[in-house]
Design brief:
The chain is an alpha/beta fold. The chain has one domain: Deoxyhypusine synthase (Deoxyhypusine Synthase, 3-Layer(aba) Sandwich), CATH 3.40.910. Helix content is about 45%, strand content about 15%. The chain has a 6-stranded parallel sheet with strand order 7-2-1-9-10-11, sandwiched between helices. Strands 3-5-4 form a 3-stranded antiparallel sheet. Strand 1, helix 4 and strand 2 form a beta-alpha-beta unit. The longest helix is centred in the last third of the chain and has 22 residues.
Length: about 350
Amino acid sequence: MSEWKPSKSELLQHSIEHIDIKRHNVVPLVQSMQSLAFSARDLARAADIYDRMLRDTDCGIIVCLAGSLISAGLKQVLVDMVRHRMVDAIVSTGANIVDQDFFEALGFRHYIADERLKSGMYDSQLRDHAIDRIYDTLIDEDELRICDETVKRIADGLPPRPYSSRELIHEMGRHLDDGAAKADSIVQAAYQHGVPIFCPAFSDCSAGLGIVAHYHERRGQPKTSFDSAKDFYEVTQIKMANPTTGLFMIGGGVPKNFAQDIVVAADILMEQDAGAHDYPQMHKYAVQVTVADVRDGALSSSTLKEASSWGKVDTVWEQMVFSEATLAVPLIAGYAYHKRGWEKRSFKRFADLYAEEPQAVA
């Protein structure tokens, strides 16, 4: 048998196609799952809780993104959630927002990997072709470098000072909205509708690589930089301005903890202002989709009931769904979309909480 040696163009033939929840009315399917057991019933309850969040017009909905979600085909789900008032703020890993969403907005794609590539036996060949593998998905490293360089150019054009990730992602959205966008984008839709995006570990993605190049070029000169404390302060302002909140968490990790911790941070700031404890409301609603094992003590798998012991999440409307995101999220989001509770909501435009916005250097 001859050794398989495909060319780069042969490897990058079939692109990931993002699922469109608008085209699939899953309400009857999810409703039928209410009478099943195990994860099916958990998923149905989670979908009902998300629908309740949307129908509670006082509720500010924070969506958390961890794992490789956009590359896997969930980009359009998130874009539609932003456009249809189903999310008011996003807390994410940098990879989802920059390496995957912003990357695709620039006109690049993710590709379906040949089944043989999942074995790992051909990873050295992929490296020779400058192709990166995300399990069964491929991405062109040469195109990623263009994404890095684009972030650098945006940073180069800003007045040198520390920025929150929200401010820098806002500028990325402005860049796309000014004509750079070649495809639908969460970053651009969020920019248009006043939905702030936070990446608390912003250096861990193409944004970090772009800023590293910016730093290196500006040795000894003023620089654009990340301010993680400003990130935390800004996202806490959402809780203080909008006491009723709900979480829809896809995956776990830093985005999950960051969004949960704003309840504690708000308590600290309120005590500082008032001089006495005046506990803020815990997150009234919470749904988490995860495959992490609750038994290993990991943050990603810690239950929402456990979060209640920290004063972060109420236990009336909370649900863990132990499922892989590409299976569960289209069902949960699709159910809520087709139930149309979002129609009575307005854009909360939490981005407007922050008066100052960076302006590019002329």
